[in-house]
């Protein structure tokens, strides 16, 4: 009878990688990027220093992984709110309500990691990532507007690019207001008003 000749592998990890990254998110939230030390991450993530470096890398590498995971998760939820089958007005309102709800979620820090923490990081790769994320979000809203033009909900000359930028700017503004303590109910009302403003018909110059 043959015995298994495979060499024993290293000890399995005693931590879940994705869960450790979620904990790292809270560490960066609580202290900001510059205020976080490796000791903070070791303690907050529950990972020994050798394993932390081996699996995740240094502080910068960990933050980039945290930021990308956070953006992917939040972006998917925002897209779902925007693209679910409903009227254009309800789609835009849903997108903005999601910005408010995620920024005021019970049990988590107010605001958004990508709006309130990452922009303060002086790192070229982080800035490129944020620029690409903003462009991607705007393109998503543009696509929803173009679908609405095809469906006859808005006229073909609707300023898609400008209004899409307004939508994402409104979303960031609501997020910042959440950070400074504006009540959720107030922000949700503002999200509804913003959706109406974005869809105001084009103003025509009166004939002279």
From TrEMBL:
The protein's UniProt keywords, in alphabetical order, are: DNA-binding, Transcription, Transcription regulation
**Phosphoprotein as UniProt keyword:** no
The keyword DNA-binding belongs to this UniProt entry's keyword annotation? yes
- So which domain of life are we looking at? Eukaryota
The record ties this protein, via Pfam families, to: TetR_N (PF00440)
Gene Ontology molecular function, alphabetical: DNA binding
InterPro entries in the record, alphabetically?
Answer: Homeodomain-like_sf, HTH_TetR, Tet_transcr_reg_TetR-rel_C_sf
Which parts of the sequence belong to the HTH tetR-type domain?
14-74
- Which PANTHER family does the UniProt entry name for this protein? HTH-TYPE TRANSCRIPTIONAL REGULATOR YJDC, TRANSCRIPTIONAL REGULATORY PROTEIN
> What's the name of the protein?
Transcriptional regulator, TetR family protein
Q: Which organism is it from?
A: Syncephalis pseudoplumigaleata
């Amino acid at each position: 009878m043959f015995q298994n000749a495979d060499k024993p592998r290293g000890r399995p990890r005693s931590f879940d990688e994705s869960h450790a990254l979620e904990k790292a998110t809270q560490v960066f939230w609580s202290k900001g990027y510059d205020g976080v030390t490796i000791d903070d991450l070791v303690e907050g993530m529950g990972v020994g220093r050798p394993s932390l470096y081996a699996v995740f890398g240094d502080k910068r590498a960990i933050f980039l992984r945290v930021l990308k995971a956070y953006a992917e998760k939040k972006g998917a939820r925002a897209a779902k709110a925007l693209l679910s089958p409903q009227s254009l007005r309800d789609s835009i309102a849903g997108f903005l309500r999601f910005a408010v709800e995620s920024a005021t979620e019970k049990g988590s820090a107010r605001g958004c990691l990508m709006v309130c923490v990452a922009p303060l990081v002086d790192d070229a790769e982080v800035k490129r990532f944020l620029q690409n994320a903003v462009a991607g979000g705007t393109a998503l809203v543009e696509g929803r507007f173009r679908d609405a033009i095809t469906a006859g909900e808005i006229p073909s000359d609707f300023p898609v690019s400008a209004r899409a930028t307004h939508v994402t700017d409104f979303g960031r503004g609501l997020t910042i207001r959440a950070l400074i303590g504006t009540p959720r109910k107030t922000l949700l009302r503002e999200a509804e008003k913003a959706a109406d403003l974005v869809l105001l018909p084009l103003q025509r110059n009166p004939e002279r």
